[in-house]
Amino acid sequence: MLAYVIRRLIATIPIMALVAIFVFLLLHLSPGDPAVIIAGDFATEAQIQEIRQQLGLNDPLHVQFWNWLMNLFRGDLGTSIYSGLPVSRLILQRVEPTLMLTLCTMVIAVTIAIPLGVVAAWKVGTWVDRVVMTVAVLGFSLPVFVLGYALILGGSVWLGWFPVQGYTSIFTSFTGFLAHITLPALTLGLVYMALIARMTRATMLEVMNEDYVRTAYAKGLSTRTVLVKHALKNAMVPISTTIGLGLALLIGGVVVTESVFAIPGLGRLTVDAVLRTDYPVIQGVILVFSLTYVMLNLLIDLSYVLFDPRIRY
Amino acid sequence: MTEAMTLSAAPPRPVPAGEPVLEVEDLRTYFDTRDGVVKAVDGLSFSLKPGEILGVVGESGCGKSITSLSIMQLVPRPPARFASGAIRFRGRDLLKLGHEEMRRIRGNEISMIFQDPMSSLNPVLTVGDQLTEAVILHQKLGKRAARDRAREMLDLVHIPEPERRLEEYPHQLSGGMRQRVMIAMALGCDPSVLIADEPTTALDVTIQAQILALMEEIRDKLKTAIILITHDLGVVAEMADRVLVMYAGRKVEEADVVELFERPQHPYTRGLMASIPRLTAAEMETAPPRLSEIPGIVPSLNALPPGCTFADRCPHVQDHCRRGYPPLEPKRPGHVAACWESHRLPEWQP
Predict the structure, then answer these.
(1) B74 lies within 8 A of chain A by CB
(2) Domain count of chain A?
(3) Does the CB of A214 have a partner CB in chain B at under 8 Å?
């Protein structure tokens, strides 16, 4: 197991190297000169040249890459062009809301979607199944920004149950945190829920045709025991894969959700950075997201051990 | 072993001597499909005495498995429905029982083992988990008592190191071992009827013999009545007391095993017997003869011909065979068959 983890960690090196190269080139391939942006609208050519010199933009590309990479290893992701603050600090400040939003989304989605999928599979072909699947299709097709504003309208404006926007840290006030996180987590969770529910249903339908499910029924076990203990446990490997891969999909949704609900997270940071063409920040965020994604994949693979005793690493 | 046996010997349940423990009467299991009604089991009757081994034979698709699943009421309804009939188990008609009542019988008083022990055991649960489940449910045993019982059952089916096996997963066991676990699982609650649906088909020949010997041993020790479903007449000859031959959802012949093998009255039974490979030493030396086969296939069950369903494949078919289905009649003492021409069949030479 440990050997496997180490092997997998080593295998992430080339992947991350490719990501690093891509992220670095991003700055040089995209239109617009960072020096011009920093200097502002009324800068002279001499001022721009000075900034170029400062940022090392006049060095050959490979030298720039090398310096950038070395800084990266030192934990230095560069400095924001817009705010002048270190990118690493900007990211660290924004991690909590995003992490919390993702976690809450995941918890809500998984606890709702798996039972829904199981019930849909059990009642396959009936109206229950059709309702669940229709909601799943809707959830899949509804853009986050539409659902987000609809929930704000319903939950905050009409009912007044939740604050319209913003974020309260879980360390400041738990109730405030819950009030702020519920609508965004629901918004982001619907797509995710739809994905997991569909996968659960499909896998359960497959598993329910297995011989060992018939054996379980032949023992006189109740449908509930057969579904949960015998079928669902077998279905968990594909379902957990979907949960993990879906999390990656959430990264995209986080950006939009945070904008809709004005949550000061990484997504918001990304959008702001893109609008301001703040390249060092964009680079930093992409690196963080990529690393998360790669690590997530490893975690998914490792989680199989929990569900299937035949899998050994 | 002896200790295990005394512990597992259940108080004998009152089935009056000579009375059947299970009686199936005019069972009709029909499937409503888009292509019409498929009569998977069509008017089947038989009975099973305590401690008896009844062999049910026939080709694939003749209704053997649906019969057993009907007794367990594990056929999916819909599309299946019981168009008529009764399945009397100790005087109670199983077809009239509710879901909960039927659940109390399944795995408790009637249990079942299946063809492929690899796919019939749950790959993600330990052997112990799967063995204790039924006894905890039906016999209301506690965790520890259930485990003791599970160990006993593994002992009974001759699995060495039962303690260790309880912790293992099915993939850690060999095929024969898995089928032993399946049998142990089925016997946990001391059922009076065990339905074995092709229990040895998926196993190696040597393992097959061991599993069959085990089932016979269990019948002798526990007096469990066994319905042995198979397409293998060799297995039937070895094991069964009585044999029921099925064709296209119907019983076409039934007799004691010796009687059936010595004087088969139905051309279908004869066809099955002729297709058993039997090599003499002389044949081994030279080229073995080609196995005889029954030409054609089982007719599709939603469009059965009006007359005898075997007519199209029968070497002895006459015109009148196609006009009406032959009644199931006693042809000899204790020997029934459904054939218009049975009295004209040539002397059977095994």
Answers:
(1) yes
(2) 1
(3) yes
Residue A56 maps to a domain: no
What single letter denotes the amino acid at residue A55? Answer: L
Partner B contacted by A312 (CB < 8 A): no
Mean pLDDT on A153-161: 82
For B119, the closest of A211, A221, A222 (CB atoms) is A211
Looking at residue A309, what DSSP letter applies? T
Model pTM score: 0.79
Distance from CA of A196 to the nearest CA of B (A): 21
Contact between B170 and B178 under an 8 Å Cβ cutoff? The reply is yes
Asked if A218 lies within 8 A of B138 by C-beta distance, the reply is: no
Per the CB < 8 Å rule, is B121 touching A212? yes
Answer whether residue A114 is part of any domain.
yes
Query: What percent of chain A lies above the pLDDT cut of 90?
Result: 14
Q: Does residue A207 form part of some domain?
A: yes
- Any chain A CB within 8 A of the CB of B121? yes
d(CA B147, CA B158): 17
Residue A190 lies in a domain: yes
Mean pLDDT of chain B: 83
Helix axes B175-187, B205-222, angle to 10 degrees: 20
B276 touches chain A (CB under 8 A): no
* B300-308 long-range contacts, CB within 8 A, separation 24+: B301/B38, B301/B39, B301/B40, B301/B61, B301/B63, B301/B248, B301/B249, B302/B33, B302/B35, B302/B36, B302/B37, B302/B38, B302/B39, B303/B36, B304/B39, B304/B248, B308/B338, B308/B339, B308/B340
3-state SS, one letter per residue, for B174-217:
CHHHHHHHHHHHHHCCCCCEEEEECCCCCCCHHHHHHHHHHHHH
A105: containing domain:
92-266
A74 — contact with chain B (CB < 8 Å)? no
**For A224-248, what is the HEC assignment?**
HHHHHHHHHHHHHHHHHHHHHHHHH
Q: CATH no. for residue A107? A: 1.10.3720.10
> What residue in A sits closest to B168 (Cα-Cα)?
A309
| ipTM, two decimals | 0.83
pLDDT for res B350: 67
Average pLDDT rounded to a whole number, residues B183-211 = 85
Residue A231, Cβ density class (10 Å: 0-12 exposed, 13-18 middle, ≥19 buried): buried
Query: Number of residue pairs across A and B with CB atoms under 8 Å?
Result: 72
User: Which of A306, A70, A118 is closest to A223 using CA atoms?
Assistant: A118
Kindly report, residue by residue over A7-60, the tens digit of the pLDDT.
888 888 898 889 888 888 877 777 767 777 777 777 788 888 888 887 777 788
